[in-house]
Amino acid sequence: MMVELRNMSFAYRGQPPLYEGFDLFVRRGESWSIIGPSGCGKTTLLYLLAGLLHPTGGSIGVDGHPIRRPRPSTGLVLQDHGLLPWATVRENARLGFSIRMFYGPDGKHAPKAPKTGKIVAEREIDYWLQRLGIETFQDKYPSQLSRGQRQRTALARTLALSPDLLLMDEPFSALDAGIREDLQNLMIGFHRESNLTSILVTHEIEEAVFVGEKILVLSGETNREPHIVSNDVAGRPGDRNQPAFRDLCDKLRLLIGGLT
User: Fold this and answer.
1) Where among 162, 178, 200 does a domain terminate?
2) Same domain, 181 and 257
């Protein structure tokens, strides 16, 4: 999905604006990372794109349609998983389908496409539980899972719905390094297969470089002009220790330091 911010402004009540006259254009199928110092508005921007917050000025659109509420075809993955503690892994993965079936294809709560049948929904759930390596845990509850398994469940719930825009708010930050890299590799592979438009918020510079074909660096002051770094080393697991990868990480550290 194409995402466009035009002259967008946002401020929390009683606070200096995080964004003022801000323009951004994300092309269909691109993978973006967003980094910057704490409090710069990374998560706020993600919530604006998700329709959970609304700009105080300007506009945000997806494929030419203004965002005034959450889109049914936008997937959002949060750091804290957002799983129902009383539901099993499979029931959590099925949650989006259950909500869509309740409303039907009304274009507000569910896509306007024909209603997804139960057999198709269960097939998608099976596929993602297996691909994410948690099919053997499908009858367990979140309290019985590791952090990595809970995050995989949250990913299965989102990806089973076939979103056209995927927004992720530091989804791997609480995970051990090995598990985090495994999930990063999986998301890179899925992005390439599906041509999905994805935007990742992270505080890890290395993660931003590995995932984002383009990297948006936000300022600790009011963001008026986007600072965008093109990245031609994204998605190459073997390049993490190569000079080009490390040089870009160093460049971003200097850029963030200059914008703080």
Assistant:
1) 162
2) yes
- Residue 4 has what pLDDT? 96
- How large is the average pLDDT for residues 136-165? 92
pLDDT digits (tens, 9 = 90+) for 34-83: 999 989 999 999 999 999 999 999 999 999 899 989 998 999 998 777 89
Q: Where a domain ends, among 138, 162, 186?
A: 162
Task: Give residue 105's pLDDT.
Answer: 76
Residue 165 contacts residue 74 (beta carbons within 8 Å): yes
Q: What is the CATH number of the domain that holds 249?
A: 3.40.50.300
User: 34 has which bridge partners?
Assistant: 201, 216
Q: Do 181 and 157 share a domain, yes or no?
A: no
Classify residue 79 by burial, with Cβ atoms within 10 Å: 0-12, 13-18, 19+: middle
Q: How many angstroms separate the CA atoms of 207 and 193, rounded?
A: 20
196 and 251: one domain? yes
Which strands, in side-by-side order, build the sheet including 214-217? 74-77, 165-169, 197-201, 31-35, 214-217, 227-230
Instruction: Give the Cβ contact number of residue 233 at 10 Å.
Output: 18
